Every structure is written in structure tokens, then in C-alpha cells.
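Sequence, C-alpha cells quoted for completeness.
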Amino acid sequence: MKKTNIGIGKKVWYYPVLGGSERKEAVITGGPYDMCGTVCCKIDILSAVVDIENLKERKEK
């Protein structure tokens, strides 16, 4: 995802391994902000921050 697409309450897919096929449903709960050169945000399923490159917007059908 891009930094401009990050918004609290947005539904996303979280990929624990970048480029992997496993994904988990999540909701953005905070961020975005820069951490050591990496743009991160918080999601509801983890207590740590995640790199926004590991997120993809979840579209409802």
C-alpha cells in the first residue's frame, strides 16, 4: 500500500511474509509513520507495527 492510502478503520489483507500467499484479515488502527526509514502502521491483529508493504486493501464484494 501507499502511505496516502493508509487510514484508521480501513480493512486490509496482512501478508506476514512479503510476497507470500498466506494472508490474514485486519483493520488499520494507527499510523502511518516512519520507523528507521520504513513506513509502518498498526493493525488490530498484532501488538507490533507492520510495514505497509505487507498490506493490501481488502475490497468488499
About this structure: The chain has a mean pLDDT of 95. The chain has no helices and five strands. The first strand starts at residue 11 and ends at 14.
